[in-house]
Amino acid sequence: MYSVTKRIDFCYGHRLLDYDGVCKHPHGHNAVAEIEIRTDALDVRNMVMDFRDIKQLMKGWIDRELDHRMILRHDDPLVAPLRALGEPIHILDSNPTVERIARLLFEVARELGLSVVRVTVWETPTSCATYTGD
Questions:
Q1: Do residues 20 and 49 make contact, with C-beta atoms less than 8 angstroms apart?
Q2: Catalytic hit among 14, 29, 36, 123
Q3: Cα–Cα dist 16/73, whole Å
């Protein structure tokens, strides 16, 4: 079994509803996502997948959808005023925890045709969440 992991940096803001702690307030993170791709056999170039291809697909999506955006739950009262101001937001059906963001990136990688087996998102240099799918 072979695997490669591509790291992608991005910035986002969020807050957690129904949460009793400082993360209930809007705040931001400098995140690092690790996308692990796995295969049984290498391609004709002796690669799992070219890092450039992973970057082009995943960083392209992250840059369009998450980077420098507020990631909010669909019923967050901030959604309407931020939309009215034309601010960039990304809406989730659940609280935008780092766990949920890791799962989102995993699902996007699968939709983009990547053989992803793990996505880890580092919310801070000392705190991360991982999603591995089924």
A1: no
A2: 123
A3: 8
User: Of the listed 11, 27, 68, 87, which one is catalytic?
Assistant: 68
The whole-number average pLDDT for the span 86-103 is 97
Tens digit of pLDDT for each residue in 115-134? 999 999 999 999 999 999 87
Q: Give how far the C-alpha of residue 15 lies from the chain's centroid of Cα atoms, to the nearest Å.
A: 15
Active site residue 99: no
In angstroms, rounded to a whole number, what is the distance separating the alpha carbons of residues 132 and 134?
7
Q: How far apart are CA 111 and CA 98, in angstroms?
A: 20
Q: Does the annotation count 68 as an active-site position?
A: yes
- The domain spans of the chain are 2-131
Euclidean distance between CA atoms 72 and 79, whole angstroms: 7
**What are the structure tokens assigned to 95, written together?**
């609280």
Active site residue 128: no
Domain at 2-131, CATH homologous superfamily? 6-pyruvoyl tetrahydropterin synthase/QueD (3.30.479.10)
The 8-class DSSP code of residue 94 comes to S
User: What single-letter DSSP state applies at residue 93?
Assistant: S
pTM of the model: 0.95
